[in-house]
Amino acid sequence: MATITTSDNQGSAGTPVGRFNTPYILGISFISALGGYLFGFDFAVISGALPFLQKQFSLDAYWEGFATGSLALGAIIGCLIAGTVSDKYGRKPGLLIAAAIFAISSLAMAFSPSRDIFIASRFCAGIGVGMASMLSPMYIAEISPAHLRGRMVAINQLTIVIGILITNLVNYTLRNNGDDAWRWMFGLGFVPSAFFFLGALWLPESPRWLVKAGKDVTAKSILNKIGGEKFAAASLSDIGKSLSGITRPKYSDVFGKAVLPAVIIGTGLAVFQQLCGINVVFNYAPKIFESIGASQDDQLLQTVFIGGVNLFFTFLAMVLVDKLGRKPLMLFGSGGLAVVYIVVVQMLGAGSPGVAWGLLSAIGIYAMSLAPVTWVLISEIFPNKVRSAATTIAIISLWAAYFILVFTFPVLFDRFKDNTFYIYAGVCLAGFIFIWLKVKETKGKTLEELEQTLKGD
To answer: 119: buried, middle or exposed (CB in 10 Å: 19+, 13-18, 0-12)?
Structure first.
C-alpha cells in the first residue's frame, strides 16, 4: 500500500519523522467506525418510525419517551459488557459481538408483535450501540498516530451522521408504505450490521491492548505496518513506559488521585454532550414540527434536512479538529447553542416556519463541535492503564444523560412547549463555563504525552 512522509513529533522519547501507511490507517478506521454507522441508524430510525409506533401501540407521552429512551438503558449495559470484554479479550472481539447484536436486534424490532417486545428489542439494540459507542472511538484512538488521531476518531462521528442521514432518507422513502412501514425501517438495519461483522473480522487488534497482554511481537508487527520500524520501536517504548508496573485494571482505579481529574472532565463532557438538548431535535423533530402545524410528510422531510446539515458540518469538524484544536471548538459549540436555543424559543412561540432554520443552525453548530470533539476528548484524556474502565464510566454517564433527556422531553414539551429550550440554553451556558475552566488542549500530543501532562497537574 502507498505511504506518505509526514512529520510526527510524538512520544516522550521523541518518535522521529516517519512514513505512515495512510490507506491502511484509513481502512482500519472506517471499518471500525461502521459501529458508528449502526449507532446512527438505531439513534435516528425512531424519529421516522415514532408516528407509526404511536398509532400501532397507542403510545402516550410516557411510553413515547420510554420507547425512545430504552436504547440508552441498553447502551449502559453495553458499555459494561464492552469494558469487560475489551480488557480481557481485546477490542476486536468486542466489535464483533456488537455487530452481531445489531443484526439480531434489527430483525427483532422489525417483527415485534407488541409494545413491550418492541421496547425489549430496542433495549437489546442499545447494548450493541453502547458497545460500539465505547469501542469504536477507543480502538481508533489506540491505533492512530498522534498527528492523525483527531481526524481518525472523528471518522466515527462521520459514520454516525451518515447513518443518521441515510436512515432519515430511508424513513422518508418508506413513509407511504402503509401502517407497517416502521417494520421495514427497523429491519433494514440488518444489512449494514452484516457488513460491519464481516469487516471487523479483518481488523488487527489494538497494539496498546496487545502490549498490555504481553504480546509485544504482534503489537510491533501492527505498528510497523502503520508507521514503519522507527515508529513501531518508539511507540512500543512509550506504551511500555506508560504501562510499567501496571496490573489488571479495576474500576476502583479510576478514582485514584492521579486519574480522577481526567475522569471528572471526561464524564462531565459526556453528560453535557447529551443534556445540551440537541438530541431532542434528532429524535423528536416530527413532534416539534407538528407543534407548528407541519404535515407528517413535512415532518419527515425535515429529518432529512437535519441529517444533511449534520453531515456537512461533521466534515468541517474533521478539517478543523486537528487545526484549531479541541477546546476552541467546544467553546464555540456550547456558546453558540445557548444563543440559538433562545432564538428557537421565540420562533416556536410565534409559530414561525423559520424555526426550521433555527434548528438546522443548532444542528450545524453541534455537528462541528460538541458531537465529534467530545468523542475525541474521551478517547484521548484517560491514561493507558485505566483507559477502558474510565471510558466505560464516561460513556455510561453519557447514555444515562441521553435517557434522561429523551425520556423527559415529551413530558416537558407537553407542559412547557417552546420554553423547554430555555432549559437547554441554561445547560449550554453551564457547559461553556465548565469547558473554559477545566478542559485543556490535547491537539498533536500522543496518548502517552497526555498521560504525563495529567500527572504533571
So the answer is: buried
DSSP 248: S
Measured between alpha carbons, how far is 202 from 95 in angstroms, rounded to an integer?
Answer: 11
Q: Name residues whose C-beta falls within 8 Å of residue 454's C-beta, 6 or more positions apart in sequence.
A: 258, 259, 261, 262, 381, 383
C-alpha cell at 184: 421495514
Mean pLDDT by 10 residues, the chain (457 residues): 37 49 84 88 86 87 88 90 86 93 94 93 93 85 77 79 89 84 91 92 88 85 84 80 61 74 89 93 81 75 86 85 85 95 89 86 93 83 77 86 91 88 96 91 65 56
- Give Cβ neighbours of residue 114 (< 8 Å, ≥ 6 apart): 57
Q: Classify residue 454 as exposed, middle or buried by CB count within 10 Å of its CB (0-12, 13-18, 19+).
A: middle
> Strand, helix or coil at 19?
strand
Over its C-alpha atoms, the chain yields an Rg (Å, rounded) of 21
Q: Using CA atoms, how far apart are residues 337 and 457, in angstroms rounded to an integer?
A: 31
Contact criterion met (CB below 8 Å) for 128 and 8: no
Degrees to nearest 5, angle at CA 7 with 384 and 444: 40
Q: Are the beta carbons of 19 and 143 closer than 8 angstroms?
A: no
Rounded to the nearest 5°, which phi and psi values hold at 214? 80, 20
443 membership: H or E segment, kind and range: none
Q: Which residue has the cell 478517547?
A: 379
Spatial separation of the C-alpha atoms in residues 397 and 76, rounded to whole Å: 8
* Chain mean position to CA 221: 29
29-63 burial by CB neighbour count: b if 16+ within 10 A, else e?
bbbbbbbbbbbbbbbbbbbbbbbbbbebbebeeeb
Virtual torsion, Cα 273, 278, 283, 285, nearest 10 deg = 180
* Residue 176 grid cell: 407511504
The HSE-up count of residue 432 (CA atoms within 13 Å, CB side) is 15
Alpha carbon 135 to its chain's center = 10
pTM of the entire predicted model: 0.75
